[in-house]
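Pasting as-is:
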Amino acid sequence: MEWRKLYAGLIDNNGQIMKYSLEEAAQKVGISKKSLDDYMLQLRLGRRYDFDFQANKDHKVGVLRAYIKGHKKDKVDTECLETENGEAGKPESKRKLSKKKNK
């Protein structure tokens, strides 16, 4: 993850910390900024959902994506509680849309 080192900051020969923007890091390692933005999002979500990075350090990002996808689904399932009008299984945002359409 060379781009992470560039983005987090490296110490140059003079002992100064050199930090690169995500766009600059992307250019230096030859990956699109969009891909790096996505990787950063996956890393943040992995931390939020307590992904074991150390145990999965030799795996590709797909393992992390699958883990996050499973946790997001679990979160939506727990948020989809029955409401007073019996609209079980719908996230809050969908319930609001349904109420507006019915009016």
